[in-house]
Design goal:
heterotrimer; A mainly alpha; B mainly alpha; C alpha+beta; A: mainly alpha; Cytochrome-c3 Hydrogenase, chain B; three-stranded antiparallel β-sheet; about 10% strand; globular; C: alpha+beta; Alpha-Beta Plaits; 3 helices; 7 strands
Chain lengths: ~375, ~350, ~160
């Protein structure tokens, strides 16, 4: 017994020693962040450089930790959903959706077909808006400033649609347990169709401006390689993992709402580099467009909300549900003691696991590549810290 | 017809007739110095505004539109703000070098201004090695940048300065080679000779495809030399926050900024002189009527028009392209631009010897 | 063969760059594509949809009457303690004591515009207004009293 402990201990120390020994005399240790233009928030990276080459990247988290999970324990099942909009603020609808699904699972209520379709429509619009912002921000990370404004033009069109129906542009709180908060605005269908026509021409401009650009391609290709095995072992999900050939789209694997009846492809690339991640997201935008096109003319009539009790009480037990956000798998785990508030809530956020692969991907590349890799990971820091 | 040459001649005559020749020369120095400083200030204001407007229109924005008519006084307001800000010197910085660096950069920009011909007979110093002087002096500005990066005692600044060093040293080569190819065609290093040789047509038209290749390489190389996107690695905003001038604030930062824009003006002026005939109007062969009409446009307008066209081209690059990585930047120079410009120089030399150009 | 690849690489690279420049050049020359607006000078363009959630207000009719019974449903529904309701007892003409609203305190600085209070209200006494320009120099100005002075509950609302 003692022997085993000793060997483990010595292994541990050697391992630790190696970790420490990565910083040697003459290396340059730089704090990237918490205030840095390309960390998209308050992420702090401690990078060890040898010249321009990265030897080690150590992410330090916690600068925007608001203890959302703990806060949720004191909020009722209706109230806690709005907080999740503040986690991954770019796909706030999808976060709300995940929470509502979990609460509905606990309450064992069925929502109306109309509410299902509205939820999926809103999810896909959110995914589009999120990917648009990512596209602009990513181009800005590699130094092209113009695409950012072009991306915001299209994102603005989606935000206007959201604003009209949900009443807010970023943190909507539109999805509630039992359905959605309001019915669709009468203009919704026309405006979405108009947006689809408009965006289909603009997405080709995206390709002209950035995708085909030789400088952009050379910045992206063969940079930040993540193998299929590594993607699985780091727990990467979403476009990050799908670019490495891992099939992990929750919409396909565990269909929720009406995703089972829809025709769409799970985009899988096998390159594993930054350009593959870029292509996955670009093609996902087209897939989202096709999902919206399938649904926009087929919104069933009926109630948008099922009647629920004034005070929601989940039965004693554990409930888990997951959805596919723009960044990957978002899981909600509720432990209920039978009261009006959850006993414990755990959110599985995609950004945290995706960030953990950063060191593996960035090692041996240049500083400019680190920025490009972070861009393709599509990090939202409040989602990582929670 | 409006001519700057007449004005300078009459001032010179009046000074010489009124004062002792030595005193007159000193007074002329003073006037020229004042003119250069004024030109600097005006160029800084105009080019920054132009950049902001160009970027705004490409990014489907309006750009500055509040201060003055159409936002035209925005840069004046910004300059006033910058002069009123405190010029911080970091505690661990090398104080002397830190404060000296912006002035080195600016002085170099001023020195390169000397041999440029702004209009017919309107030139500070028509030195017989004009082009050589320009390429020699303009490479001194790297010392200012390295000085700023080193003295700031900031890791970002240091990395930015080192990148800038590698970049300018490499791109000097292809910029120099494309300048030389024009010198080969002209047979003279003197700016006034180069312009005079384009009396019957600009080199970009007379020199066939090799001249166009030389021009493209020149534009790429000077974009890199002035640290402009897509070669702005020295101040790569998303990587190094602000690169070599991270620690600078207030007027010291403004001087770097000013020097950058003045450098752009100067390299574009050189490009316009070498490839587009400087102040020489557009002349086409024997069309005397057409040539006569073109002569009516003042030479200063021709010069500024060509220069601002090239500046616009460089701004267009900046607001379209992503930034290169440091190794790709050096690859581009050593594997593509340098061999091509060597070959191109050979081609132009053969062309000049055989007299194949117009 | 090597030279052919070298040259074709260069040409395709230049072509891809020119494609991008054509795009930005198009937007540079087409001013009608500009989408930004001069913000405070465009009141006619700043029409927000009626569902936009800017702040909670309590509509009063021409008799200075509101619909709030002081039931505190909104206070309970609020996740951040944004709403504080102080009630009083009114003596009705026939001598009965009746619970009524005294002060409806609304902390705008705490509000996240989640709309749960409006949904919870049984008498539609509060609603979301479209005003979004909330910045003030003093934080205490963000704490608002929503019921107008001297207002009372509309007849017939229980």
């Amino acid at each position: 017994m003692l022997k085993i402990l000793n060997t483990n201990h010595s292994q541990l120390t050697t391992h630790m020693f190696e970790e420490v020994a990565t910083t040697t005399e003459g290396d340059l240790v730089i704090n990237v962040g918490p205030q840095h233009p390309s960390t998209h928030g308050v992420l702090h990276l401690l990078i060890t450089l040898s010249g321009e080459t990265i030897k080690n990247v150590e992410p330090h988290l916690g600068y925007i930790h608001r203890s959302i999970e703990k806060m949720c324990e004191s909020l009722s099942y209706r109230q806690f959903i709005y907080v999740t909009s503040r986690m991954d603020y770019l796909s706030s609808h999808i976060n709300n959706h995940g929470c509502a699904l979990c609460v509905e699972k606990g309450l064992q209520i069925e929502i109306t077909p109309r509410a299902r379709v509205i939820r999926v429509l809103m999810d896909e619009l959110t995914r589009l808006a999120s990917h648009q912002l990512w596209w602009g921000a990513m181009a800005m990370d590699v130094g092209a400033l113009t695409p950012f404004f072009h991306a915001f033009r299209e994102r603005e069109a989606i935000n206007d649609i959201m604003e009209e129906t949900c009443g807010a542009r970023l943190t909507m709180n539109y999805i509630v347990p039992g359905g959605v908060m309001f019915d669709l605005h009468p203009n919704f269908q026309n405006r979405v169709k108009e947006f689809i026509r408009f965006f289909k021409t603009k997405i080709d401009e995206y390709d002209d401006l950035v995708t085909g650009n030789i400088i952009f391609q050379s910045r992206m290709k063969r940079v930040g390689y993540l193998s299929k095995e590594d993607a699985i072992s780091y727990g990467c999900t979403g476009p990050t993992a799908r670019a490495s050939g891992v099939s992990c789209d929750i919409r396909k694997l565990y269909p929720y709402e009406v995703y089972g009846n829809l025709k769409f492809d799970e985009i899988i690339e096998t390159g594993g580099d930054c350009f593959s991640r870029y292509l996955v997201r670009m093609q996902e935008m087209r897939q989202s467009l096709s999902i919206i096109e399938q649904l926009i003319d087929n919104i069933p009539d009926g109630e948008f909300q099922t009647k629920t009790k004034a005070v929601l009480k989940l039965p004693k037990g554990e409930f888990y549900s997951r959805v596919e956000t723009a960044r990957g798998e978002f899981g909600v785990y509720i432990i209920s003691e039978g009261g009006t508030t959850p006993y414990r809530i755990k959110f599985r956020s995609p950004g945290f696991s995706n960030l953990s692969a950063l060191n593996h991907m960035a090692k041996g590349h240049k500083i400019g590549d680190l920025v490009a890799i972070m861009g393709t990971l599509d990090l939202v820091i409040p989602d990582i810290d929670r | 017809m409006f001519s700057l040459e007449g004005i300078t001649k009459s001032i010179d005559r009046w000074l010489n007739s009124t004062f002792h020749p030595t005193l007159a020369l000193l007074l002329e120095f003073l006037i020229v110095g004042l003119c250069a400083i004024t030109l600097f200030a005006v160029l800084g204001l105009v080019l920054v505004l132009m950049e902001r407007k160009v970027s705004a229109y490409m990014q489907i924005r309006r750009g500055p539109n509040r201060v003055g008519p159409g936002g035209s006084l925005q840069t004046v307001a910004d300059t006033i703000k910058l002069t009123m800000k405190e010029g911080l010197t970091p505690d661990g910085a090398d104080k002397f070098l830190f404060n000296l660096a912006p002035f080195v950069v600016l002085t170099v920009a001023m020195l390169v201004l000397a041999p440029i011909a702004f209009a017919k007979g309107f030139q500070l110093w028509d030195i017989n090695i004009g082009v050589l002087y320009i390429s020699a002096v303009s490479s001194v500005s790297i010392i200012g940048i390295l000085m700023a990066g080193w003295a700031s005692n900031n890791k970002y600044s240091l990395l930015g300065a080192m990148r800038s060093g590698a970049q300018i040293v490499s791109y000097e080569l292809s910029a120099g080679l494309s300048i030389i190819s024009m010198v080969v065609l002209t047979g003279s290093l003197q700016i006034s000779d180069i312009i005079a040789s384009q009396q019957n047509g600009w080199w970009i038209f007379k020199g066939h495809i090799p001249a166009i290749i030389a021009f493209v390489i020149f534009i790429i190389a000077v974009t890199a030399e002035t640290n402009r996107a897509p070669f702005d690695l020295a101040e790569a905003e998303s990587e190094l926050t602000a690169g070599f001038h991270t620690e600078y604030s207030g007027m010291k930062f403004a001087l770097f900024f000013l020097a950058e824009y003045v450098n752009i003006f100067i390299v574009c002026a050189i490009g316009a002189t070498l490839f587009f005939g400087g102040w020489m109007p557009l002349h086409i062969g024997n069309w005397t009527g057409f040539n006569h009409i073109m002569d009516y446009i003042p030479s200063s307008i021709w010069f500024l028009g060509k220069t601002f066209f090239l500046i616009f081209l460089i701004m267009w690059f900046r607001w379209t392209f992503p930034r290169l990585r440091i190794d790709q930047l050096l690859n581009l120079e050593w594997k593509y631009l340098f061999p091509i410009s060597m070959f191109n120089l050979l081609l132009i030399t053969v062309m000049a010897i055989m007299g194949w150009h117009f | 063969m090597f030279l052919k690849k070298y040259l074709s690489d260069i040409f395709s690279a230049v072509a891809s760059l020119l494609k991008g420049m054509r795009m930005t050049g198009y937007y540079f020359t087409h001013r009608k594509e500009i989408i930004t607006q001069n913000y405070p000078d465009n009141p006619e363009l700043m029409k927000l949809p009626e569902r936009f959630r800017g702040e909670v207000v309590m509509p009063h009719d021409e008799n200075n009457e509101h619909a709030c019974t002081g039931c505190t449903a909104c206070e309970l529904a609020c996740p951040n303690a944004t709403i504080k309701i102080i009630t009083k007892f009114d003596i009705s003409p026939d001598g009965k004591k009746k619970k009524a609203l005294d002060t409806f305190i609304y902390h705008l600085e705490l509000c996240t515009m989640c709309n749960l209070c409006v949904v919870a209200c049984p008498t539609d006494a509060i609603k979301m207004a479209q005003n979004f320009e909330h910045s003030v120099f003093d934080r205490s100005k963000l704490t608002k009293k929503l019921n107008a002075p001297g207002s009372k509950i509309r007849e017939g609302i229980e």
